[in-house]
Amino acid sequence: MIRAYKFLMRPTVGQTIALGEMLRDHCSLYNGALQERRDAYRHVSKTSVKYGQQSAQLKEIRAFDPERQGRWSFSSQQATLRRLDKAFAAFFRRVKAGDAPGYPRFRGVNWFDTVDFPEDGDGCRWDATPHDPVTRVRLQGVGHVKVNQHRPVIGKVKTVSVKREGRRWYVILTAEQTQPEPLPATGSLVGIDMGIASFLTTSDGEHVANPRHGRRAAAKLEAAQQALARFPRVRRDKRTANHRRAVQKVADLHRKVRRQRLDHAHKTALGLVREHDFIAHEDLKIRNMVRAPAPRCDPETPGSFLPNGAAAKAGLSHSISDAGWGVFLTILHAKAESAGREVVAVDPRNTSRTCPECGHVDKENRPTQEKFHCVSCDHQAHADTVGALNVLRAGLVRRDANPA
Question: How many CB atoms lie under 10 A from the CB of residue 50?
Answer without folding.
Answer: 11
